[in-house]
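Homework help board

Subject: predicted structure for assignment chain

Our instructor gave us this sequence and asked us to write out the predicted structure in token form, then describe one feature. I got the tokens but I'm not sure how to describe them. Can anyone check?
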Amino acid sequence: MIFRYKRVQGVLRPVIPIKIHYRNRSVIYEVLVDSGADVCMFDSEIGDTLGIPFFNGRSGEVVGVTGVVKPYYIHPVTITVGNQSFDTEAGFLSNVSRFGYGVVGQRGFFEHFVVSFDFLKGEISVMERT
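My token output:
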């Protein structure tokens, strides 16, 4: 699958659409494909939309570039990219991004796909791992 980079506030970013499923609900959500992120992290509002009991998840902490520690809660979800779906765990965090998208990272995304970035072409290639 080939996706185009998205211009966000004048900057090109590798943002792609995914579908997140939890039980009988699903939502389409844009995510930054981030090879430096350890896990998938989505905004708590997405969890609310899906009916996820936010504080009932396994807790963790994340430290952003500002050095501020914030709690997040891990829940099982299914993610669909194109026509490929897989079960994984994702963290849900309040105010994950002021730009309105989440993050997919090493565990939960890169373990399922081979990803390449071509900034000059403005393309992200996401290939199912075989």
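Reply (TA_rk): Your tokens look well-formed. For the description, you could write something like this. The longest strand covers residues 69-81. That's the kind of observation they're looking for.
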